[in-house]
């Protein structure tokens, strides 16, 4: 089994805002850092609707997975942070469309306000 750790920096995502990688490939898994509703050019969508923020976050997760040689169909676990549990139904509907037939394990964590005033953040683990 490989013990290498490979950081992934997709060109389709804005540079990380802190000391982390968008994703790491290790031992056959892809670990995707918490993705926020930030566009590839670095625009923060804090004023966008919850639905727009959710779609951007999921696009970012997908971009990180693809850059790591994985995909939505290889997801194992997804963790979702919501500013308010009232946003769960809207998130679940958009997520179901995005995930398609994939049904990884998932946790929804209501957090209160998120960084930069965002409404949603998603992290994931997938097979490489």
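^ Assign residues to that structure.
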């Amino acid at each position: 089994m490989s013990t290498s750790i490979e950081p992934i920096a997709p060109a389709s995502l804005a540079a990380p805002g802190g000391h982390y990688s968008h994703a790491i490939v290790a031992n056959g898994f892809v670990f995707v850092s918490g993705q926020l509703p930030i566009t590839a050019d670095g625009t923060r969508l804090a004023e966008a609707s919850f639905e727009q923020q959710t779609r951007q976050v999921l696009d970012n997760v997908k971009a990180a997975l693809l850059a790591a040689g994985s995909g939505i169909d290889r997801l194992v676990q997804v963790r979702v942070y919501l500013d308010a549990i009232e946003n769960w139904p809207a998130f679940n509907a958009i997520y179901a469309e995005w995930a398609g037939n994939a049904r990884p394990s998932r946790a929804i964590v209501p957090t209160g306000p998120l960084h930069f005033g965002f409404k949603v953040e998603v992290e994931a683990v997938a097979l490489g």
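The helical segments are 50-67, 88-99.
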